[in-house]
Design a protein that fits this description.
The complex is a heterodimer of chains A (about 300) and B (about 230).
Chain A: H1 2-5, H2 19-26, H3 28-45, H4 47-50, H5 82-118, H6 120-134, H7 138-149, E1 153-154, E2 157-158, H8 159-166, H9 169-185, H10 188-195, H11 200-208, H12 213-236, H13 248-251, H14 256-259, H15 265-292
Antiparallel strand pairs in A: 1-2
Helix pairs in contact in A: 2-3, 3-5, 3-15, 5-6, 5-8, 5-9, 5-12, 5-15, 6-9, 7-8, 9-12, 10-11, 12-15
Chain B: H1 2-36, H2 41-55, H3 58-73, H4 88-122, H5 125-132, H6 137-175, H7 180-190, H8 193-221
Helix pairs in contact in B: 1-2, 1-4, 1-6, 2-4, 3-4, 3-6, 4-6, 5-6, 6-7, 6-8, 7-8
Classes of the chains: A mainly alpha (about 300), B mainly alpha (about 230).
Chain lengths: ~300, ~230
């Protein structure tokens, strides 16, 4: 866009619309997904102001209360407000989702670019290692990591949980980024950089990495959805986020296992929250893919 | 340890196979419909069904199914598992629900794949030739288009099948099934590392085996592919 603004006066009417506007026009469903994601972020970040109740406040006078004006989504078996817990759950889901996706995609991208840049034996070795990781189902790998690492809470978030969710992403991202980087490696400007005797690190991070940003961004949003789903599954199994923290997956386990026949709202809304959040990220991710690179498939 | 795994593998495998059959039976007709009626209401409905399938957690779907069954038939998942050779009807009526819960996501993946590959195949020259020589549209789709679109679908189905054994991890909890997945969660909770190792290896070996079978299937589906 910067180039357009430096043109002669009077040519400004030919200026392309703002990229955000272009995106909304070309991908309305993706824009709808993005709106929901923004809503989730607002709810998660400002949970203290949005949630009507304390998510941990136990109220024995209102146990298993059905949805009403006081408790929009009812209460659970401890009398905790389901709506407030879902709002705070958004914070947990987004924090874990974004951080693990950032970690997994970041490491995966570096491995992918390094693998493509050096090629030969290093590439071969890295790719075989990635193949090994790829032969485990995501959740099995994550559970194995949880089993080995245990828990390591930092600032109310389990760092090992984030690592466990990030590790299964690494090989997938590494593969995609590697294939994009392989094409870029052959371009003349990389040769030029090498001829100018720049260091490997400089070429990798300054010359190749910026050109794989599109696939990286697409994978990053797609994997936030995966991470939210995985976090919910792990928490549901009791191996992710632990009580009493509000987390969507956790709300589906524990006492709701005993009571959901009488109080279906206990499981209905958290599950809906997971589904909608993942749905929104998927919609946005798909739209972003079509917008940034129509040929690219995750 | 081996007997422990063997007895549970039977159950998990059965659910996985049922889920696969269910997914394929849903995915191929739906994917074909979506491709045939591209950009119409039918296509949009099927695409929403598929994208939703990727978003809905299987364990939540399982809970909803149980809830529905409870209210409709007053049925709760039985505590014990009946093998298929003891009482096929009882066995199937118990396992069809978890198979549905995991099969939905699975069918969503396969539907998307069927749709996109069929759309590509419809652009091929031989489809135009078939239409030009006046082959009935139904035959064009069933004889010319679908068989040629099956390779990527078989790949996806195979990959997902291998991962189903792992994917059952959560769903088995919901339906109280003593399968591999439940065993895995129990061993992780107990930090029983030898068992965790054994199960992880089992799943990986299974994945490699399924991939091998998929490769063999390629040769069966596409006469151009020959090994050896």
């Amino acid at each position: 866009m910067a180039i357009v603004t430096t043109t002669l006066e009077g040519t400004e009417e030919t200026k392309a619309p703002h990229p955000v506007l272009q995106f909304i026009r070309a991908q309305p469903t993706g824009a709808a997904g993005l709106c929901f994601i923004i809503l989730l972020f607002v709810a998660g970040v400002f949970a203290e102001f949005v949630a009507p109740y304390d998510p941990l406040a136990i109220d024995f006078s209102a146990m298993l209360a059905p949805p009403s004006w006081e408790h929009w989504m009812g209460t659970d078996s401890f009398g905790r407000d389901v709506f407030s817990r879902i709002i705070y759950g958004a914070r947990t889901a987004l924090a874990v989702g974004v951080l693990s996706s950032l970690l997994g995609c970041g490491i995966g991208a570096v491995i992918g670019v390094v693998s493509a840049y050096f090629g030969g034996r290093i590439d071969m070795l890295i790719q075989r290692l990635m193949d090994i990781l790829l032969s485990f189902p995501i959740i099995v790998l994550a559970l194995a990591v949880v089993a080995v690492l245990g828990k390591f809470p930092v600032l109310g978030l389990d760092l090992n949980l984030i690592i466990a969710i990030a590790i299964p992403m690494i090989p997938k991202v590494a593969r995609v980024v590697r294939s994009s980087a392989l094409a870029i490696r052959e371009l003349p400007y990389v040769d030029a950089a090498r001829a100018a005797s720049y260091s490997h690190t400089r070429i990798i991070f300054r010359h190749i990495a910026p050109n794989v940003v599109a696939p990286f961004l697409i994978m990053f949003t797609a994997f936030i959805a995966q991470a939210i789903l995985l976090e919910a599954s792990l928490s549901f199994l009791g191996l992710g986020v632990t009580e009493p923290t509000a987390a969507w997956g956790l709300m589906l386990s524990g006492t709701s296992q005993e009571f959901y026949a009488q109080a279906p709202w206990m499981i209905l809304f958290p599950g809906l929250a997971i589904s909608l959040a993942v749905f929104a990220f998927n919609l946005f991710g798909d739209a972003l893919r079509d917008y940034l690179d129509p040929r690219f498939k995750v | 340890m081996l007997t422990e795994i063997a007895s549970r593998l039977e159950l998990s495998l059965q659910v996985a196979i049922m889920a696969t059959l269910l997914a394929v039976l849903i995915a191929i007709p739906l994917g074909t419909l979506a491709a045939l009626f591209k950009d119409t209401v039918i296509d949009h409905v099927i695409r929403v069904f598929a994208i939703a399938g990727l978003a809905v957690p299987s364990f939540w779907l399982g809970m909803l199914i149980i809830l529905g069954l409870l209210h409709a038939f007053n049925w709760i998942p039985p505590l014990t598992y009946t093998p298929i050779y003891v009482d096929p009807w009882k066995n199937l009526s118990q396992l069809i629900w978890p198979a549905m819960a995991v099969g939905y996501r699975y069918s969503a993946v396969a539907t998307r794949m069927t749709r996109s590959t069929l759309l590509e195949v419809f652009n091929e020259d031989y489809i135009r030739t078939a239409r030009a020589k006046g082959v009935y549209e139904r035959l064009v789709v069933t004889r010319h288009a679908i068989p040629n679109a099956m390779l990527p679908v078989v790949t996806v189905v195979g990959l997902e099948f291998a991962f189903l054994i792992g994917g059952l991890v959560v769903t088995e909890q919901v339906f109280n099934l003593n399968g591999i997945g439940k065993l895995f969660v129990e061993t992780v909770t107990r930090a029983d590392y030898t068992m965790v190792q054994a199960l992880v290896m089992l799943v990986a070996v299974f994945f490699v085996l399924v991939n091998f079978v998929v490769d063999l299937l390629y040769a069966a589906l596409d006469p151009r592919i020959r090994y050896g």
